[in-house]
Amino acid sequence: ELYIIITSDLGLCGSYNSNIINLARTRVKENDKLILIGNKGISQANKLIKNKDNILKSFAEVGNKFSYELASLIASESFDLYKQSIISKINIIYTKFVNNVVQEAEIKTLFPLEIKTNHKSVHTEIEFEPSAEEVLKNAIPLYLSSLIYA
Length: 150
Known about the structure:
By secondary structure, the protein is α/β, with parallel strands linked by helices. It has helices at residues 16-27, 39-43, 45-48, 68-83, 132-149; strands at residues 2-6, 33-37, 55-59, 90-97, 103-111. It has one domain: Pyruvate Kinase, Chain: A, domain 1, CATH 3.40.1380. The protein contains 5 helices and 5 strands. The protein has a 5-stranded mixed sheet with strand order 3-2-1-4-5. The two termini are 21 Å apart. The model has no long low-confidence stretch (mean pLDDT 89).
């Protein structure tokens, strides 16, 4: 599995970073791959994983300069790893804003998509132009980029 871990570059933000690192510590296994965003995540990486080769990328001093281009780069490289069967899942660990006082560390699986089908199936045929595979091949990186950027 791949974990994209987003932390801050600076401290003095309460339990913001420690909640993310603690959640990552419970979920990340020894052979999992990491992409780290933020100085605090980079400095705590040794608590998460022993094999430093499993840290694929790290981005420091991103702060307010986090761009859609950077999110697209991360999404593209992550999806390439998935297509090459190097990883089986793309996850993101981040802080979800609840209110000004409470931010909760959360983990979300970005890919493969988890589709819940609790409705009756409809037997309709949808035609894609170009093929459905081609549409998905182009749409999935955009989807991943948008989720990472948001």
